[in-house]
Prior knowledge:
Layout: H1 6-21, E1 25-26, H2 33-45, H3 60-66, H4 77-88, H5 95-109, H6 112-120, H7 123-126, H8 139-152, E2 156-157, E3 176-181, E4 189-194, E5 197-203, H9 208-212, E6 220-224, E7 227-228, H10 236-243, E8 249-254, H11 268-277, H12 288-292, E9 298-299, E10 302-309, H13 324-334, E11 339-345, E12 350-354
Parallel strand pairs: 1-2
Antiparallel strand pairs: 3-8, 4-5, 5-6, 6-7, 6-8, 9-10, 10-11, 11-12
Amino acid sequence: MAGKEPLLGTLKACVLGLQASGSDTVTDDSPHVTPLCDILEMILRKGLRSGALGMKRRDYWHWIEDLPQHDSCGRLSYLSVMVEKTNACPKLLTAQGRGRYFLRMALNGKSLVTTIQHLQHTCKLLERYDPSMSVLGNEDFMEPFLCLLLVASQSNFSLDLQNSSFLDESWILPVCTIYQTVPCRELGMVLRYLEGRVFVIQVLPDSQAEVDEVVLAGDVIDEINGVSMRNAYNGQAGNILNKLKGEPLIFRLIRWRRKDGELFRPLIPYIKIVQEKMPTFQLQQEHRSQESGEQQPQLEGRLMYALQYLGQAQLGTFGGKEVLDMGITKVRNQNCPPQDVLFDIREIEIVVQEKSSNEVS
């Protein structure tokens, strides 16, 4: 009878595809991840009854969230932790997003099978599924479903849980990148807030952001120094940057395009609104140096970075990155005139060379 449920047939094809890929570790780059998550969600939703009087729409996340409360034997501590982590994620605003985040976490932790098994033995929650329409509420379908989950759990999933800002809207994940930059007065990114997201609509010419060649107009700021910008209020990013002025910055960026060069589809509605409000706005394809064909200087095959030299400070012979802040403050307090230099990173040393005279500092 289980073979008559088409969703189980589709799940079987996804699981077999995972096995056939032969990958030791399954990451978000795997073409099988999104279809697998999508079909799992369909199965978890099928036959799910509405709330009392049909007024409240339930999603599978609601019974997952309630499951630890029905733990009479104290064996669901791991599930409680997972639920807490999901609820604490600031990038998730909906039950759909939280359910998807939980599924990805459960795949990473090989805990999806035990979660479903505990549901199977929690009658009060299992009653939320219509036995005539669902997989989870039907005993004949539950057994093959669990078998397929066991096979899937043999794969080692390593999915990026930080990449979750669009799970409320889509299973399709964007490309994310980290942008680290040195302390400066102005970064040179023009921002626009749109429905709780922070868009970079322009990278100003000759600014620090342009020199760093990481950010492109159209990218979305996901985090600033670990602070999520999901559901940001107008001016929030600017306020954070003002508080961090003079300190190293680490941005987590969501790229406007995917690895294949195509526009990240969940961004399309946002981009259309931006273009309506700013007809001159264009998605930035390349950094300015690439557009103009400028060649970055090289030495013996190594890239030379054009920077401004502000001075030096002695920090001793011990310490890690925690001494950087102290060193930055010391150099800034010297108030030395900046010098244009070329920064050469070698295997065991760093060489700073004056741009005008080629003299090594």
